[in-house]
Amino acid sequence: MSAIIKLLLMRRILLAIVFAFAPFILFAQTWEVGGFAGGAAYMGDLNQHNPAQVNNPAGGIYVQRNFTPYFSVKLNYVYGKISGADSTSNTQQFRDRNLSFHTTLNELAFMAELNFMRYTPGADRDHFTPFIFVGAGGVNYIPQATYLGVDYNLRELQTEQQDKPYPNNAIVVPYGAGIKYNFSGNWNIMVSAGYRQVFSDYLDDVSGKYPDRTKFTNPLAAALSDRSGERTGVYIGNPGTQRGDYRNHDTYLFVGFTLSFTFVTANCYY
Known about the structure:
The chain is α+β, with helices and mostly antiparallel strands. Helix content is about 15%, strand content about 45%. The protein has a single domain (about 25-265), classed as Porin (Beta Barrel).
């Protein structure tokens, strides 16, 4: 008799535990996939004052797991392009320097996302929330410059006479904010903006000081290390003088819209 009582007691305890953790178990069954489309901006040695100068396209995809109506984790991939040119600057000093670059970005990152309000796609409530996100990942980049109508990879030319080419991959820390809206059943639309702190100062191939042009063995590298003479006929890049802005990191921004679909079980929110 005591064995039956113990069995019934254990069953009740087990049921209590299951009911206590049921919301987390059910929400863990919620997955989301989406696509992003928007623009990219860059801030660094060739754009020192305008952090939101969006002038190139960007797009991406992601898969996300929504653990609760407030917290999610995603694997995010974004492809974009950034560029900069001294010739478009409002500052005469930069126009005289006359450097330029463009590069494609391939970014893969894990991100944690926090909703400020309860958000439950597929339910008849909780359709809207602001959110913030932060993460860590990596980006691949190969800066190029157009010279006499041809694009050249600047990294290989070592335009600042580095001992070896700088890495073309860097760690990034994405962070930003946005607003999401569940507009139809399991479908969501979002608008977001996210900066990337990049652990590299060579997204634009510019970091420190002018090299000695006379010591280049490659005339193309010498030409692209100091392009001021193309405008004025006089080269201003004296060896050892400032070429970049001496900040340790470049940054870039992705801004745009996301359309996503949330997969939920029949009783996930009820």
